[in-house]
Structures are given as structure tokens and as C-alpha cells.
UniProtKB/TrEMBL annotation:
<dbReference type="InterPro" id="IPR006369">
    <property type="entry name" value="Protohaem_IX_farnesylTrfase"/>
</dbReference>
<feature type="transmembrane region" description="Helical">
    <location>
        <begin position="103"/>
        <end position="123"/>
    </location>
</feature>
<feature type="transmembrane region" description="Helical">
    <location>
        <begin position="129"/>
        <end position="150"/>
    </location>
</feature>
<feature type="transmembrane region" description="Helical">
    <location>
        <begin position="36"/>
        <end position="56"/>
    </location>
</feature>
<feature type="transmembrane region" description="Helical">
    <location>
        <begin position="182"/>
        <end position="204"/>
    </location>
</feature>
<comment type="pathway">
    <text>Porphyrin-containing compound metabolism; heme O biosynthesis; heme O from protoheme: step 1/1.</text>
</comment>
<feature type="transmembrane region" description="Helical">
    <location>
        <begin position="225"/>
        <end position="247"/>
    </location>
</feature>
<protein>
    <recommendedName>
        <fullName>Protoheme IX farnesyltransferase</fullName>
        <ecNumber>2.5.1.141</ecNumber>
    </recommendedName>
</protein>
<dbReference type="InterPro" id="IPR044878">
    <property type="entry name" value="UbiA_sf"/>
</dbReference>
<dbReference type="InterPro" id="IPR030470">
    <property type="entry name" value="UbiA_prenylTrfase_CS"/>
</dbReference>
<dbReference type="InterPro" id="IPR000537">
    <property type="entry name" value="UbiA_prenyltransferase"/>
</dbReference>
<dbReference type="Pfam" id="PF01040">
    <property type="entry name" value="UbiA"/>
</dbReference>
<comment type="function">
    <text>Converts heme B (protoheme IX) to heme O by substitution of the vinyl group on carbon 2 of heme B porphyrin ring with a hydroxyethyl farnesyl side group.</text>
</comment>
<feature type="transmembrane region" description="Helical">
    <location>
        <begin position="157"/>
        <end position="176"/>
    </location>
</feature>
<keyword id="KW-0472">Membrane</keyword>
<feature type="transmembrane region" description="Helical">
    <location>
        <begin position="253"/>
        <end position="271"/>
    </location>
</feature>
<keyword id="KW-1003">Cell membrane</keyword>
Length: 310
């Protein structure tokens, strides 16, 4: 048995020993899920850029990304607080700062509150109200609706909760235009459709963890074979949804070629996962999903700006 699987405990979070903010900064940083937030911000940036034929005004770009990033980080910290009991029972998460008592629940709450207030005020003052309210709604969607309720209630948790994580392209768009546009909703739809294969691939690999913590994720409630079928079906759906920006004229040939290549690889992994998996296929599929979304949004950017530069 791996060391990590022996060490974790189901005890409630212990009280933190007093250590200074400076020594602890890395625990606070970890609670913000920085790599997830960076990818969310990339999708928000693309939403901003595609919202205008020219360049995004610097003030909207900087305040918009900072505000969205701060509110997403606040949501991630709340997730660490609400989930600390579940996290303490899973090998992947038992070492998190709140579980280990490196950061106490009141400290984490204050940190999250400060991030949320600063983020909201930035959006309200330097961007616009619609972006501030939609970003706040995404925070509530993830930290309250998904984490507190759906995650514990239904295997469709990540499908419904995925809407909060899919929102940033729309938030970026409204930051620049102040309006909700169908093209922005299409980008949201792409991330929304991407989320199930992204997460269920990981959940297949971690099925025992979720079963032990009694979290009703799809592989726990409906089995691994059914989850693999769902990953494949959502990946096929994602391939179709990714064609829409080209078909409605939101994106051009560079995007069509780039997204088709990325989707072909995703489809390959999803088929392999269903019909010819080995021990590493689920995790490889999960890791690829992150590369897929990141490169897909970079391709959208290139596709948008290349005609402008040429
Ligand atoms: C409800 C929706 C989602 C669920 C349930 C979910 C779940 C997860 C989980 C459990 C991990 C593993 C974290 C770890 O290894 O500790 C992960 C990693 C990751 N997710 Fe998601 N995810 C969702 C949506 C998103 C979205 C919308 C994005 C970005 C647009 C995203 C980007 C990432 C990235 C970049 C990682 C790797 C993090 C790292 O290596 O530290 N996820 N996700
Ligand atoms: C304001 C705004 C844009 C909010 C979006 C918030 C956000 C950070 C979304 C990402 C979704 C995510 C990482 C879910 C995993 O939670 P989990 O609890 O299932 O995973 P875990 O077990 O790793 O904590």
C-alpha cells in the first residue's frame, strides 16, 4: 500500500499551531487551486479577446482577470473548508492545508472572504456590474451549490456543477462588452461539455477513494464500465460542439484544423479507455483533457488574431 494511503485519517481538522502568515503563505496559495484558476483565466481571456474585433482595453483586461481570478480562488478556498472531512478520507487530498490543520477553518474563511471582497469590488468598480454579479454567481455555484449540495447528493453533481467552472469565457466577454452574447455561450458550452470526460476519467482512476469517502461519483454509483461509456459519449458530443464556432462563423480555418486534431486525440483516448484500457489509461485521459482545453483556447486566440496581424 502506498504511504499516502496509510497516512490519511478521517478525524476532523485539528486546530492549527500558531505560525506566521509569511511561513504559511504556500498553504494559502495551495488552497486557491492555482493551476485550475490559471486555466479558468485562460478561458476568460479568450472570452475577452473574441468579444471584440480589436484589442481588449488594458483596464478591462487587467481588472477583469484579477477580479475573476480572485473570486475563483475564493471559491476554491471555500471548497477546501466545506470538504475537509471528505478530503481527509481520500489519498489524493488527505494532505491539504485545512485537513492537516496548517490553516484553521476561521483563517481559511477570512482568507476566502478577503479574496472575494477584493475581487468583487475590482469587478464592480473597474469592469461592470453584470460581470461582478455573474462571477459572484459562479462562486456560489461552485462553493455552495456544487460543493455543499450536489457533490454529496447525485452522480450528476459535476455535470450540473460544471456550469460554474464553464462560466469564465462568458465572464471575460461581459467584462469587455457588458452584454451576454450567443458566441460567448458557445464557449461556455464547450467547457461545459468538456467537464464530464475531464473529471470522470480521474474519478475512474480514483473510484476506491470516492467509494471510501462515500461521495456518490458516477463510477461509485453506476460502475466503471458505465462511466467509461459516459466519457466516450461526452467526448463525441464535445467533438460536435467544438465544430459549432466554425459553423456559425465565430472561428475560422485555423480553429477548425486545430480543434479537429485535438478532438481526434481526445476521442482516441476515450475509445481506448472504453475498449482497451490498461492501468494508466484513465489518468492519461484525465491529463490529456487539461492539455486539450488549454491548447483549444490558445488555438481560438491564434485563429482570432492571425487575420488581424497579417
Ligand atoms: C465541476 C467541474 C470540475 C470538476 C469536478 C473538476 C475536478 C478536478 C479534480 C478532482 C482535479 C484533480 C485535482 C488534484 O489532482 O488534486 C482536477 C484537476 C484540474 N482541473 Fe478540473 N474539475 C472541474 C472543472 C474544471 C475546469 C472548468 C477547469 C478549467 C477550465 C479545470 C481545470 C483543471 C486543471 C488545470 C487541473 C489540474 C490541477 C493541478 O494539476 O493542480 N477543471 N479537476
Ligand atoms: C468564480 C468562478 C469562476 C468559480 C469557479 C470555481 C472553480 C475553482 C471551479 C473549478 C472546478 C473544480 C476544480 C472542481 C473540483 O472540485 P472537487 O471538490 O470535486 O475536487 P477536489 O476533490 O480536488 O477538491
Amino acid at each position: 500500500m502506498a504511504k499516502s494511503e496509510v497516512l490519511h485519517t478521517s478525524k476532523p481538522a485539528p486546530v492549527a499551531t500558531h505560525t506566521g502568515w509569511r511561513q504559511n503563505w504556500r498553504y494559502y496559495y495551495e488552497m486557491t487551486k492555482p493551476r485550475v484558476v490559471m486555466l479558468l483565466l485562460l478561458t476568460a481571456l479568450v472570452g475577452m479577446c473574441l468579444a471584440t474585433p480589436g484589442w481588449v482595453p488594458a483596464s478591462k483586461l487587467i481588472a477583469g482577470l484579477l477580479g475573476i481570478g480572485l473570486l475563483a480562488s475564493a471559491a476554491a478556498v471555500l471548497n477546501h473548508i466545506v470538504d475537509h472531512k471528505i478530503d481527509s478520507q481520500m489519498a489524493r487530498t488527505f494532505n491539504r492545508p485545512v485537513v492537516k490543520g496548517k490553516v484553521t477553518i476561521p483563517q481559511a474563511l477570512v482568507f476566502s472572504f478577503v479574496l472575494a471582497v477584493v475581487g468583487y469590488v475590482m469587478l464592480e468598480v473597474w469592469v461592470n456590474r453584470i460581470t461582478a454579479l455573474l462571477t459572484l454567481a459562479s462562486l456560489v455555484g461552485y462553493a455552495v451549490v456544487y460543493t455543499m449540495f450536489l457533490k454529496r447528493a447525485t452522480p450528476q453533481n459535476i455535470v450540473i456543477g460544471g456550469l460554474a467552472g464553464a462560466a469564465p469565457p462568458l465572464l471575460g466577454w461581459t467584462a469587455v462588452t457588458g452584454e451576454i452574447h450567443a458566441h460567448a455561450l458557445l464557449l461556455v458550452l464547450i467547457v461545459f461539455t468538456w467537464t464530464p470526460p475531464h473529471f470522470w476519467a480521474l474519478a475512474i482512476h480514483r473510484e476506491k477513494d470516492y467509494a471510501k469517502a462515500k461521495v456518490p461519483m458516477l463510477p461509485v454509483t453506476h460502475g466503471i464500465a458505465f462511466t467509461k461509456t459516459c466519457v466516450l459519449l461526452y467526448t463525441i458530443l464535445l467533438c460536435l460542439v467544438c465544430l459549432l464556432p466554425y459553423l456559425i462563423g465565430e472561428a475560422q480555418l485555423i480553429y477548425l484544423i486545430g480543434s479537429s486534431l485535438l478532438n481526434a486525440v481526445f476521442l482516441y483516448y476515450a475509445i481506448k479507455l472504453k475498449y482497451a484500457a490498461n492501468d494508466t489509461t484513465a489518468m492519461t485521459t484525465f491529463k490529456y483533457s487539461i492539455v486539450h482545453l488549454m491548447v483549444l483556447f490558445v488555438v481560438l486566440l491564434v485563429d482570432h488574431y492571425v487575420p488581424l496581424v497579417l
